[in-house]
Amino acid sequence: MTPTLGSVQPVLQGRGLVKTFGRVVALNGADLELYPGEVLAVVGDNGAGKSSLIKCFSGAHTPDSGEMLVNGEPVVFRSTNEARQKGVETVFQTLAVAPALDISENLFLGREVRSKGILGSVFRKLDTKFMREEAARHLKELGIGTVQSITQTVETLSGGQRQAVAVARAAAFGSQVIILDEPTAALGVRESARVLQLIKDLRDRGMPVILISHNMPQVFEVANRIHVQRLGRRAAVVTPQTHTMNDVVAIMTGALTIDESDQALPPVSTSVS
Amino acid sequence: MINRVTRGRAFAAVAAFGVASMVLAACGGGSTSTESSAAPAASAAPADSAAPAEGGAEVAVSLITKDSTNPFFVAMQEGAKATAGEIGVNLTVGSGKQEGDDQGQIDLIENAIAQGQNGILITPMSVNVNDAIKKARDAGLFVIALDTPTDPPDVVDITFATDNCLAGEAIGQWAAGKLNGEKAVIARLVIFNDRMVSVDYCRDNGFLKGMGIDVKDATVMGDEDATGKYATGAGGDYEIVCLEATGANEEGGRKGMETCLSKNPDINVVYTINEPTAFGAAAALEAAGKAIGKDVIIVSVDGGLAGVEAVKAGQIQATSQQYPLRMAALGVQAIYDIVNSGTKPENTSADGTFFDTGVTLCTDDPMETVTAAPQESAQYCIDNAWG
Amino acid sequence: MSQTPTVAVDLAEEFMEPRTPLQRVQGILHRYPYVSPLVVLVVAMVVFTLINPRFLLPGNLSFLTQQTVVIGTLAIAQTLIILTAGIDLSIGAIMVFGQMVMANLAVSVTASNVLPIAGQNPIIAILLGILAAVFAGAINGFLITRFRLPPFIVTLGTLSVFTALTLILFKARTIQGPEIPEALKFLGKTIKIGDFALMYGVILMVAMFAIFAYILRNTAWGRHIYAVGDDPVAAELSGINVNRVIFSVYVVAGFIMGIASWIYIGRVGSASPNADPLINLDTITAVVIGGVSLFGGRGTLIGTFIGAFIIVVVENGLALAGLDQAYRVLAVGILVILAVAVDQWIRKVKS
């Protein structure tokens, strides 16, 4: 059972999700809750079902059974587009950016804006100027860009900058939730720090974030709560304040089990620790 | 940053380029169809054929042309099929994919050997098929070259041909007569200019010889002097502007003529390897504002129906007509006779090197200078044309 | 927003980073991939003019445009396909197929046609010929997207299939000039501007280059073609229906090939089932020389246009310089290798 405390409703919720690939059970009744204004880290050993869980929410997989809710409403995602339409944006590890296109084109990839009037309706002309201005504005809001760089192709950007573009795209379209899959995996220390800052900025602007990561120090730096995935289901939810990195690793490996009452299942702000 | 997916595609794409060129350059054996006609039920049921069938032994023949689209070869195939149907020969028809596809012909020759056929009729693509022909003869097949002699000619048992050199000579003589002393500014549109193929150099050098120009080595094109005097008829100065490869088709003819016109717009004699090439050349000349028959004369070889109709319409001034239908039909008959009665055909040409199936110069403007072939009107040629 | 300026400055710093002249050239080529073929074209034209001044005469220039028309038109189709990281080896076979459909439908019943529905109104014959090419393109697209087969293999197969189909359906007959109705040859007519003869087909080709350059640059479909060729996984995750884009590209390419069929009949004046058997490679050559990347996602139609022109210019220029066909083939081959090498170099542009 998933407790819902008081009036705080999860932005994103999964109940008893099951996903199998042939005989391999990737998800075995997994639960997840993400509450407004928090960074929820999802950690787990390889094969614990982190990826599958996230792919269900991003629409890349459809769960075999179980229920997903956005703002309390049940949803079914058959594609990443459907998830996106419900406000669930995912930044994949591969970033899903087209290197040869410029920043603005990447931001609007798949949801281009056409010009007004006959140019747009008959000649299908794109409103490049508008899209560039919008892209520049979004990047500026996130503090990750200068206006003159907006027509730079993405392949000329550094890894951190690409990540920033991908995050900016995720944040740009009135999304409700942003899921980041291993955003710092390919980055150096300095760039990782920048991306972590970006995640904090997103949260400060009220955007709930799910962060999938292997990197415990980073998780402990930015997460409000930590969802530990093990053997296809949720093993525990803890907070950086109540548990140590060693505890989390122990939960991941099954060396430590934590009683439900001792967990941070509800949002941290309203829970009593 | 190339990820693995795009890199894989990249290799595929590069491979595409390389392999495709190889495939297209080397891949052979165009279209093959087997015409099983009247008699050969015996071959399908060997149990019943303890003794040869009444009309004689089962005779199997391959006809191998250069391609299957040129009306000349299409007509040849039709002629062979008709005769094969009449006398009951099992005929296999095949061709290279296009001019220059040696490998395609070699494959077909080897197929004929493998099937234990009695004979092969072939328009040899080049000397590259000689070895395969020798192999066939060693295996006991009677090989007749059709239209194009092999080089050297004794690679095959006998050649059934129109005399391409003579056909070229006739149009050369005609052109010189028509010029009547005027300076000849000559464009030559041949099949290849980087490879020497007998039909190509024989017609082309024949044309120059007919005009009374020293061709030097008769098996090499382009070794003659670029300027000088032609001797036939009234005689006069000549200037050779170009020797362009066309692949013997319309597009090549047009492009080659355009290149020649760019080199020298004053061209007044155009030699073309065949009539499709002549059509392309005519289109280019017309586009350049030349009056064909007035500013410039076009001569050609083949005598296909469309070609001689063009002579009548004034698009081509003279063409040497050949008789591919007769050629192929005689070839099928010859192999049938060899198998059934042992009679071999004999050479009938002037120089005794091949079985001459004849040539006629088609023009509505006959010239006294023409001695290499009889001259007939375009209408006569239309009535006797193939294709 | 107080913490943001550091990041912004960092980013700006990286873009402003001083570069060597070579890197700057690399950067320019990266941004405008058609610059290198343009340089090659201009240099070639200057050299050929110096060797033989006739090269630059209006008459010869008009020949150059006319000789570009078929390969140029087909290269538009090839560009669209290569931008999706595909390739079409059947491009010439489809053009010939369309051309034979048109010609055979249009000739009178008594001519050498073999179809019982021959003798159609020439306009209908043209439309049906284009439709046949669209259908052929759709088959390629269907096989590639539905069964996830590599475009190279699919089109290598359909190259043979369409060639054979043409030979079977039309009994391998060449339809010669006089038999073909004028409407089919319409695009071969010219307008004289002094000594320069402008062929209608050339106007159509240039118009199509302009239209498709606009589409690639300014429409969502055009941008999606680039995205799909660049990184299909990223495109799919961005919400683009990759298969639909690829399929539509092959269909549109088929349409362009159909137009090329019509242009071809005008240019050559006849319809032969073995017309230009190597034109598929010529189109790939034009595209590659034009700076379009065989890896997909990069390149412009301006580049392709220049690339097609370069092939013709090199052939014509070397011919006027008195060199044999073999040298022309050699020159084009070297250009291709150079173009691919330059493409590889450009792709290594530093981040």
Key traits:
heterotrimer; B: 387 residues; alpha/beta; Rossmann fold; 2 domains; 8-stranded mixed sheet; 7-stranded mixed sheet; 40% helix; elongated; disordered N terminus; C: 351 residues; mainly alpha; ABC transporter involved in vitamin B12 uptake, BtuC; two-stranded antiparallel ribbon; 2 strands; globular; ABC_transporter-like_ATP-bd (chain A); ATP hydrolysis activity (chain A)
Structure notes:
The complex is a heterotrimer of chains A (273), B (387) and C (351). Chain A is α/β, with parallel strands linked by helices. Helices cover 31% and strands 22% of the residues of chain A. In chain A, strand 1 (12-21) and strand 2 (24-34) form a beta hairpin. The longest helix of chain A is centred in the last third of the chain and has 16 residues, at 189-204. The relative contact order of chain A is 0.18. The mean pLDDT of chain A is 84. Chain B has helices spanning 4-26, 41-44, 71-87, 102-114, 130-138, 164-179, 198-211, 250-263, 275-287, 305-313, 324-341, 378-383; strands at residues 32-35, 59-65, 89-95, 119-122, 142-146, 158-161, 184-190, 227-230, 236-245, 269-272, 297-302, 318-321, 355-356, 360-362, 375-376. Chains B and C meet through helix 1, strand 9, helix 8, helix 9 and helix 10 of B and helix 4, helix 7, helix 13, helix 14 and helix 15 of C.
What's the arrangement of strands in the largest beta sheet of chain A?
6-7-8-3-9-10
Q: Level of helix content of chain C? A: over 70%
Written as H for each helix and E for each strand, in order along the chain, the element string of chain A is EEEHEEHEHHHHEHEHEEH
Might you state the CATH topology name of one domain in chain A? Rossmann fold
For the termini of chain A, the CA-CA separation is 21 Å
Record the strand order, biggest sheet of chain C. 1-2
Shape descriptor of chain A: globular
Strand tally of chain C is: 2
* Rg for CA atoms of chain A: 19 Å
Largest interface, chains and sizes: B-C, 56 and 62 residues
Low-pLDDT stretches of chain A are: none
Question: Which runs of chain C of at least 5 residues are low in confidence (pLDDT < 50)?
Answer: 1-16
Instruction: Encode the helix/strand succession of chain C as letters.
Output: HHHHHHHHEEHHHHHHH
Reported for the largest beta sheet of chain C, the result is: 2 strands, antiparallel
Q: Mean of the pLDDT scores of chain C? A: 86
Cα shape of chain C = globular
How many domains, in number, for the residues of chain C? Answer: 1
